[in-house]
Write a structure and sequence with these properties.
122 residues; mainly alpha; Arc Repressor Mutant, subunit A; two-stranded antiparallel ribbon; 2 strands
């Protein structure tokens, strides 16, 4: 799959899009900085709903935390922090490789979702 199997697994489990990756890495770049959602929208040149959805997902996954003053990178454990550091380095060195891993993960998720039975279908 990859010469970075743990990073590939992390991408599959945590990173749903390049937007999610860019948001995570922006928060990680300065973990002491608290970002408002509006500031993140401006910085990423993204839609409010895209940023809000990804922030909620990152918080649920234990990668970001919303405080009174805004959003911060806040990994739930040292292993998650280390994986994000590895992912950041790999993205800096081989961005197309990381994007292909994200696209592959998205395809796998889409296929799995196609076979998932929804509550309203039962």
């Amino acid at each position: 799959m990859s010469e970075h199997p743990e990073v590939a697994e992390f991408i599959h489990a945590y990173i749903s899009s390049v937007w999610a990756l860019e948001l995570l890495l922006l928060l990680r770049r300065d973990p002491e900085r608290a970002w408002t959602a509006a500031a993140l929208v401006r910085e990423l040149r993204a839609s409010t709903s895209l940023v809000s959805d990804n922030l909620a997902r990152l918080q649920q996954q234990g990668l970001a935390l919303e405080g009174d003053d805004g959003w911060r990178f806040h990994p739930a454990n040292p292993r998650l922090a280390a994986l994000v550091t590895e992912l950041s380095a790999l993205y800096r060195e081989r961005p197309m490789h990381v994007m292909s891993l994200i696209a592959r993960s998205d395809s796998i998720r889409s296929l799995a979702d196609a076979f998932r039975i929804r509550k309203d279908e039962t």
